[in-house]
Amino acid sequence: MRCADYLTTLVAPSCEHATVAFEFAGVVRDLVVGFKYRNHRAVGHLLSAFLVRNIKELVADVRPEVITWIPTTRKRKINRGHDQAETIARYVGKQLCVPVRPLLERITQEHQTGRGRSDRLVGVQFRPRGIGGYSRILVIDDVVTTGATMRMARRALMSAGATEIACAALAATPAHGLRR
Question: Is the pLDDT of residue 97 over 80?
Fold first, then answer.
């Protein structure tokens, strides 16, 4: 069975923090890791296509004026050769014909990978940057673990005047109550 065919058999999990396409486990985990750490962009586009399919209803409800992403650290972007969430956001924006803009600046430079749940719940801090007149925003990330990063991004954008913010990600970890 081809990878894309296998992915069509998977059911998107419920996640209270974002609309997601997959559970971050098994083959999907391997694909996301290859995309993130080995810059396998074709895999990122494949996974993003499934995300687009899963967020159609969300997009119809929110009608985002712009798409942004959860920025990774500068060090990670340099080491990986790309910001994986930006890559996903740009693909999603192209498919949905919605402009993509960098509306969040990461204040904390520590990464989340390898941190425990209690540390992750503190979250990453963001500063909004140049949201202009956008009030309806779709925020994209690669993997949702505790939801703290999405909450902090939403808080930063709301403080800058956004009124409706929807969140989406390729995958969600199956642990810690993310599944309903």
Answer: yes
